[in-house]
Amino acid sequence: MPQHMALKGDLELHARIKPLVELYGAEWVSAARDLDTWPNARASARLRIRRDGARQARKLYSPAVLADERDRQVLREMAAQGIQVRISATPLPQGTVFIDRRTMFLTGPETAPSSPHGPRHRTYTMSAEPALVSGAYALFEAAWETATDLAALSDAARPRIDAQAREVLYALGSGMTDVAAARELGMSLRTYRRRVAELLVTLGADSRFQAGMRAGELGLTRR
Amino acid sequence: MPQHMALKGDLELHARIKPLVELYGAEWVSAARDLDTWPNARASARLRIRRDGARQARKLYSPAVLADERDRQVLREMAAQGIQVRISATPLPQGTVFIDRRTMFLTGPETAPSSPHGPRHRTYTMSAEPALVSGAYALFEAAWETATDLAALSDAARPRIDAQAREVLYALGSGMTDVAAARELGMSLRTYRRRVAELLVTLGADSRFQAGMRAGELGLTRR
DNA sequence: GAGGCTATGGCACCTTGCTGCCAGAGGCAC
DNA sequence: GTGCCTCTGGCAGCAAGGTGCCATAGCCTC
Q1: Residue B197 CB closer than 7 angstroms to strand D?
Q2: Chain B window 90-109: which residues touch A at a Cβ cutoff of 8 Å?
Q3: Partner residue opposite A141 with nearest CB, options B90, B108, B173
Q4: Burial label, A31 (beta-carbon count in 10 A; 0-12, 13-18, 19+)
Q5: What is the distance between the alpha carbons of residues A108 and A96, in angstroms, rounded to a whole number?
Q6: Residue B148 is assigned to a structural domain of this protein
Q7: Which of A19, B12, B121, B176 has the fewest CB atoms within 10 Å, measured from its CB?
Q8: Segment A84-131, tens digit of pLDDT
């Protein structure tokens, strides 16, 4: 098998991936823009997990996958099956799959399908050159480490912060006194303090300092 | 020129990189474990910056480079010359250089030098295959985006937190009242509040909430 | 309309946090 | 020893935060 070759279409990709997964596939690591980037990847990963739970699978996705509720459900299912799912803070225009750290597949540049609803004959590139694969793998690791685990983004861990709570959060973060903040937000001191108290409950904090800490850790102060 | 080839030794690497930089080198993007990963890269980057300031250079390093004061000085110099320097949260075992997004070089696997102080004949891999380069570039982007800018880690931005201040920080973060925290730390209420006030100054905060937020953002609550 | 629910704001009262002032303790130089 | 400096703790007074209580306003249902 050559060290490096181009693949045309999903069928050819699948034909290349399948034997690798069956022969070596101890570890499946992928970065993808969405859930459709690696066709059948989801099904085959599930199959592998079911067959022998020990195999490791890691999937890194663009933040866009969180937008759709159905996609989130699929992600939760994957996580429940033992696949490690993380969400990158930045989009991942190119998809990458590493199988057992020795072979990698990359999606080709984005091309429009020949007809709007016709099959997309995407191209892929496969490489088994150790230097290339390990170099790209190191970059993947760096992206992986700083990505957020799906669990941390789940509904339970991520407190619900609506627009008003966010304004209160911002006011608190600006260092204003309650009097100034209430005036700024056009509400009475009493109501402002009510909002702050609710925020403390939401963040599970016993003091304002602790609430600020949580908010900072959760990145609620940015964006 | 072949799309993909192996290079032995720094001289050969340099011979390959130089014409690319001179011909196309509008952008130099690299990920490295330390300042020695890309020999002469520093000098050549400086040269390019000086010749035409418009050229873009980005360098992503492992956190280990911050350990040595001399290295930090070099990083500061690079930043002062317009090179964007960021520090990854995780080690980057493999070095990677992208030149103008069309050619990439990767360090080979780590090999011990033939003699302890002899020249290290490291191997490198070069590739100009668009799919490989753009795929790896996407991974680099993801790692870059989540890495911390050197400026944010500089001495000015990073407050000095000694052991005692850290204990106070921890007490504040636990949600205790001042009375309980002072008792816990074996100091009087007055002294505890002095420490808290000093901490606020250190963090540049006007309120305890703001201080907690800063501490959370700076990751001072972990480790 | 009456009744009920919810959100808001004003008030009062208490707790907590913040800081200026001063007294004492400990260390160091002379 | 004296003088000086720094750190600490107690006290006092004020500012700020926290919350229970109640009145009012808006809205929905019947």
Answers
A1: no
A2: 90, 92-96, 106-109
A3: B90
A4: buried
A5: 10
A6: yes
A7: A19
A8: 888 887 777 778 888 888 888 888 765 554 455 545 567 888 888 787
Q: Is residue A223 part of a domain?
A: no
Q: Is the CB of A191 under 7 A from strand D?
A: no
pTM for the structure as a whole: 0.53
Are B214 and B146 part of one and the same domain?
Answer: no
Measured torsion, CA atoms of residues A112, B141, B78, B99, in degrees rounded to the nearest 10: -40
CA distance A206 to B213: 15
Q: Could you tell me the CATH number of the domain that includes residue B210?
A: 1.10.10.10
Let me know if residue A50 belongs to a domain.
yes
For chain B, what is the mean pLDDT?
A: 74
Domain count within chain A: 2
Model confidence at A53, pLDDT cuts 50, 70, 90, reads very low
Q: Work out the burial of residue B168: count CB atoms within 10 Å of its CB; fewer than 13 is exposed, 13-18 middle, 19 or more buried.
A: buried
Same domain, A128 and A211: no
In the block, residue with structure tokens 């990083």: B75
CB A142 to CB B145 under 8 A? Answer: no
Range with top average pLDDT, A171-180, B1-10, B40-49, B142-151: A171-180
Q: Examine the pLDDT at A39 and tell me if it is beyond 50.
A: yes
Is A111 domain-assigned? yes
Residues on chain B touching A209 (C-beta within 8 angstroms): 172-173, 175, 208-209, 211-212
What pLDDT is recorded for position A209? 92
A198 or A9: which leads in pLDDT:
A198
Task: Give the integer Cα–Cα distance in Å for B160 and B143.
Answer: 27
User: What range does the domain containing A113 cover?
Assistant: 4-155
